[in-house]
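Collaborator request, handled under Task 6.
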Amino acid sequence: MNSVTAEGNSRLDKRHLITAGIITIWLTLVISLGLNNAYTTMPNQAPVTLIVSFISTYLLFTIVYTGFPAVREYLLGLDMRFLIMLNSWRMIGIGFIMLNMFGHLPALFAYIAGVGDALTAVAAVFLAFNLMKRKEGIPKRTIWRWNAFGLIDFILAVTIGILTRSDALLMQSNGINSDMMVAFPMVIIPGFLVQLLSLTHIIIFLQLRNNHRNDTFVKIK
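Structure tokens returned to the collaborator:
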């Protein structure tokens, strides 16, 4: 291995370590806030902390991506297969349906979030596998549609989760609500996992626009 390649790999490894450190700090902050009931709300009160966390995440990402060329280069250079495979973790969304069966979550939220997550997760495995095995790559429109579906599913799930809280617009008549989603440990899902994985969708869109603008097929070397 020549010195230029070694230096490049070392620089990339440092970026990965910094990213892992930021994600760890982020998760620790969410856990700390959750343990101190910072996300919980009273009936008829908007989940301000959760909403602010979403706004802060996307605002900070936008500022860093547009303002720091080195960060932009790093994000656009991430392996798309890895970003896609991260969404296989969304299979845990099936747990929402189980919680509904035991009367802990409203059906509207549980099934939309659970089924949407499961479909995104299964498709993610097939997409990533084909990106690794097919020499010609896969159609860009296929990745775009999967990515759009996964991101829209998050938007719907979070919106419906907020609207099915206690005394909210879509709360079930039997009193079952989604309040547990802002209580620890469940708050880790909307407070951290949803935001982190939604960023993978945004990065994939950015990669498709910048790295594969004129490509019909996406091929990852």
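The cover message to the collaborator said: "The longest strand covers residues 138-139. Residues 3-218 form one domain. Please let us know whether this matches your experimental observations."
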